[in-house]
Write a structure and sequence with these properties.
By secondary structure, this protein is an alpha/beta fold. It has helices spanning 40-47, 71-74, 90-99, 105-114, 130-142, 160-175, 187-193, 211-217, 221-229; strands spanning 2-11, 14-24, 29-33, 55-60, 75-78, 148-152, 179-183, 196-201, 204-210. The protein has a domain at 2-83 and 147-229: 3-Layer(aba) Sandwich (Rossmann fold). The structure holds adenosine-5'-triphosphate. Adenosine-5'-triphosphate binds next to strand 2 and helix 1. This is ATP-binding cassette domain-containing protein.
Length: 239
Amino acid sequence: MIELHQLTKHYGGTLAVDDLSFKVEPGHVTGFLGPNGAGKSTTMRLILGLDAPTSGQALVNGRRYATLSRPMHEVGALLDAGAVHGGRSAYNHLLCLARTNDISATRVAEALEQVGLSGVARKRVGGFSLGMKQRLGIAAALLGDPGVLMFDEPVNGLDPDGVRWIRDLMRSLAAEGRTILLSSHLMSEMALTAERIVIIGRGKLIAESTVAELTARYPSLEDAYMALTADSVQYGAAR
Ligand SMILES: Nc1ncnc2c1ncn2[C@@H]1O[C@H](COP(=O)(O)OP(=O)(O)OP(=O)(O)O)[C@@H](O)[C@H]1O
């Protein structure tokens, strides 16, 4: 479970996250939506303790990330798939992570298998395509077999086969009782993958609902998103 309590983050004069409170519960995929610059990545970084909130709290299983004794066993995340050391092999990249987090080498092989990278495990990550790096980032997130998972735009760069694979993976991880927070700008894909939706704009909560409720009120999830975020788009053509 992820809980945000009045989470706020200023970067100088920019209010990136503004008094944000919501819960992400286990057992289903929760889609995290919002226009460019809405604060989704910042929120995820705050949950992972990669940045400190200006005020408020982000809790994973009731605790701040910094106080988790075995963090990779509790929460895994894919934030920026490009942020890997290109000189290492996929296997060695994961092995380094595993060793520093008390995770067995067996799990490394399992995670590579789970994301379909076993065949290129010994190849340098620098030569990987964006889609392969996304898969590697997902393997890293899964390494500690955590109950809470966050994925920031994981379908970026994936081919149609990969997009379907992500959809099935997200749903099966949720069906296992895990808490899944998934950000994406692809509304049609989100409608197929998520059960619950959180929408933010300009750092503030706009809506917390189910896909079923939104698609009952609007012709599609995309229409719901467009209507609900109409006043929150900062970058883009006027609608
Ligand atoms: N390290 C930082 N320093 C200064 N400003 C930042 C920093 N990180 C984010 N911001 C600002 O905070 C706001 C929210 O950015 P964030 O990346 O969280 O949005 P997002 O919803 O993930 O956007 P996108 O959909 O484009 O990825 C933006 O105005 C951004 O410029």
